[in-house]
Amino acid sequence: MSTVAAYAAPAAKAPLERTTIERREVGEHDVLIDIRFAGICHSDIHQAREGWGEAIFPMVPGHEIAGVVSEVGPGVTRFAVGDRVGVGCMVDSCRECDNCRAGREQYCAAGMTGTYNAVGRDGEPTYGGYAQGIVVDENYVLRIPDGLSLDVAAPLLCAGITTYSPLKRWGAGPGSRVAVVGMGGLGHMAVKIAHALGAEVTVLSQSLRKREDGLRLGADHYRATSDPKTFEELRGSFDLMVSTVSAPLDLDAYLSLLGTEGTLVNVGAPEEPVSLNLFSLIGGGRSLAGSQIGGIAETQEMLDFCAAHGIGAEIELIAAAEINEAYERVLDSDVRYRFVIDTATI
């Protein structure tokens, strides 16, 4: 075992505080990573405050991890000391089910092992990236291309893949009309990626407060959902909508914005149930879908794509002592667009 400094929530809804945690010894196929940066995802807040159900405490959140390899196990073939690497939302899966064999480890039939707030296959709780080091099996580690700075790459390990995967799966590209619902940590990445894929991109946000940013990041249009005219004028306008918000939406109103056989994909996960009139789907042959991060191979594909197109997250770099303040600011939508912790300050 080794001991590293970390920030943890000692109990549900409790402020995070500095502590130390134990990491396992580097095994045959393990990689020890010196964490340099860790993004703050809204998922961290949902889980630290038990918004998505009962959680495991103490909890060290963080599944947007970027760092440098400092040690490798004797059987490691993919990485070497000094490599720039990342870790996303999972650190293991069964590796045997149909989904794992197909590269969809996020949908592992036995359940993927989350980077934090989970129990590993060794029976021990997992602790995430708000720490100065982590040990991960090489099969769940990603290579960060040289064209990406580690600080702006960290959020790609969740926000990047969470938006890239549905955009690719549902055909965002030249000639497609894509709407991004929400202009936050996920939404701003969806705008950048959809634009780079060649789609015509519209942001649907509550207000026009971030309009200049949206257009700068690649949106062709920016509309306020607080204006009733938006839903009248854009009816039937989109082939694909990606909802990144974690608040419940009027799904019937948003589905009306899809053209025939269009799809609304949810990647934001509200804590409350939502309602739906099925005629909103039946009438236009529309689809309502969900998407959860991406597999390891697709995540590497996303990182390579972002490096090739010069895409990184828009970040606000903070010291570890500012984590609790950052949580409140995320809830107030007061961040443009991702907080990233400089883990040297832990």
From TrEMBL:
Its EC number is 1.1.1.2. Residues 14-341 form the Enoyl reductase (ER) domain. Coiled coil: none annotated. Pfam families: ADH_N, ADH_zinc_N. The keyword Metal-binding applies. Keywords: Metal-binding, Oxidoreductase, Zinc. Belongs to the zinc-containing alcohol dehydrogenase family. PANTHER family: ALDEHYDE REDUCTASE. This is alcohol dehydrogenase (NADP(+)).
